[in-house]
Design goal:
alpha/beta, Rossmann fold, globular, four-stranded parallel β-sheet, 3 domains, 317 residues, single chain, 15 helices, binds iron/sulfur cluster, binds 1,3-dihydroxyacetonephosphate
């Protein structure tokens, strides 16, 4: 059970103090709640967080995201202490791909090169030739010699999107994201019709009925950059709702709608909210900085095996 914290404590000031005392850096993903985004030293998508984890000189990395992101930080940075606000912050994609099942598929398809999305466990990365994120999946697949067939795991929607972009022979794992697979085409089309000058922007983890209406498809960071540079002023955003905080800060004069009913409008839905990302709270960030736990610990042999495909990914860019 999470400790009850004295409500008179100024958590923002306490976190700043502990950060200095512990020589810690806070890395946060765009899907974190606004307060966590605001106290982060680095806010980024999964690729940016992996890169930043590689070159920090802090002793402690507080990774405010989900478990695979913290594990990736530890794989890249074995001498640092990596702590997370909530060890139960998982991911439906990582859960969908068990190492024993991937090992079986590899054995059945020995000529295939294995590309796994960063949303996987270290054990799955260790079985992969390349890692990728949604920012660089197309570039990673395109870098593989053309005569090689590819196993792409675990997100079927990202895999299909990359297959369309590259025309490559790809065997797709059938995993999905609980957030991105739930956007509803009719709801989105109604929202676009009610806001005639709006543009739909979507993460490639969304399903084809959503992606086919999108004006722009991209990873979390690419969507954010697009909202700043585009001439459009109204956006329907088909990805996790946390990103709207950064979008509104980056372009305060523009209007952003979630592509699914928010929880205050439909308590049974909240479909654009990742239940895993939102396990992290400011209170838990304070506790994990104070106590330096829960800590991500990895077997060294597994770490080295998982490092290889991540380093290949980082080298491709
Ligand atoms: P990004 O690679 O865009 O950060 O996405 C991570 C993720 O979990 C998407 O749901
Ligand atoms: Fe995983 Fe989806 Fe949550 Fe991203 S939004 S962490 S892919 S469950």
């Amino acid at each position: 059970m999470t400790e009850i914290i004295n409500p008179s404590l100024d958590l923002f000031a306490e976190i700043e103090r502990l950060k200095r005392e512990q020589n810690a850096v806070i890395l946060a993903h765009y899907y974190q709640e606004p307060d966590i985004q605001d106290i982060a030293d680095v806010l980024g998508d999964s690729l940016a967080l992996a890169r930043k984890a590689q070159d920090t000189d802090a002793d402690v990395i507080v990774l405010c995201g989900v478990h695979f992101m913290a594990e990736t930080a530890k794989i890249l940075n074995p001498t640092k202490k990596v702590v997370v606000p909530d060890m139960n912050a998982g991911c439906s994609l990582a859960d969908s791909c068990k190492p024993e099942d991937l090992a079986k598929l590899k054995a059945e398809n020995p000529k295939h090169v294995v590309v796994s999305y960063v949303n996987t466990t270290a054990a799955v990365k260790a079985l992969s030739d390349y890692c990728c994120t949604s920012s660089n999946a197309t570039a990673v697949v395109a870098s593989i010699p053309k005569d090689k067939p590819i196993i792409f795991a675990p997100d079927v929607n990202l895999g299909r999107y990359v297959q369309e972009q590259t025309g490559r022979d790809m065997l797709l794992w059938q995993g999905t994201c609980v957030v991105h697979e739930t956007f509803n085409e009719k709801y989105v089309l109604d929202l676009l019709a009610k806001n005639p000058r709006s543009e739909l922007i979507a993460h490639p983890e969304c399903e084809p009925p959503i992606l086919r209406h999108a004006h722009f498809i991209g990873s979390t960071k690419k969507l954010l950059d697009y909202t700043k540079s585009s001439a459009a002023t109204v956006f329907v955003v088909a990805t996790e709702s946390g990103i709207l905080h950064a979008m509104r800060k980056g372009a305060p004069e523009k209007t952003f709608f979630e592509a699914a009913p928010s929880r205050d409008k439909d308590p049974t839905c909240g479909c654009s909210t990742c239940p895993y990302m939102k396990l992290n709270t400011l209170e838990k960030v304070f506790l994990c900085l104070r106590d330096l736990k829960p800590e991500v610990v990895l077997d060294e042999q597994l770490r080295l095996a998982a490092l290889r495909p991540i380093e290949r990914m980082v080298a491709i860019g």
